[in-house]
Amino acid sequence: MQEISTKPYLLRALYEWCTDNGFTPHIAVRVDNGTRVPRQFVRNDEIVLNISFEATSQLQMGNEWIEFSARFSGKSHKIEVQVANVLAIYARENGQGMAFPVDPAAIGAAPDVSGSDGPRSSELGPDESGAERIERREPVASTRDDDELPPDDDGSKSTGRAHLKVVK
Fold first, then answer.
1. 63 is in which domain, residue-wise?
2. Residue spans with biased composition (Basic and acidic residues) (predicted)?
3. Within 10 Å of residue 25's Cβ, how many Cβ atoms?
4. For position 79, which CATH number holds?
5. What is d(CA 63, CA 9) in angstroms, rounded to the nearest whole number?
6. Has residue 116 been placed in a domain?
7. Which residue of 34, 39, 99, 130 is surrounded by the most CB atoms within 10 Å?
């Protein structure tokens, strides 16, 4: 019998930790042909999704797929993401969460939906414990009805482009 990955269990645990602490859980996802998301919000073959209770409907976090409905610019979309494509999960308010290893073979197989080469595996790296601590990553797309992105930490207007910074 094939062993089930720990990744879906870690995703569910960190989602629960975020909600128990009043934080807003976000997931960074590598987009490929099997990913069902609104393509106009994809940047560099990635999308960041707010998966909080308030932003989603019928959220199901299974061992293979994460599925839910969410609103983008006021229009409802069915979202389907393979667990294998989740790059990170973190709390929007403080950036704490976990990033997952990127499979270089899978990145090459992803379609070029944005005209870029895709994410670089050097953007993600383990600390001494093997886990990741994420400082802050701005959402590419908000699943809320308002289209305003929060300002960056320095008070400047956000560009909406996602950035991942590993803090050691």
1. 7-123
2. 130-139
3. 24
4. 2.30.30.220
5. 8
6. yes
7. 99
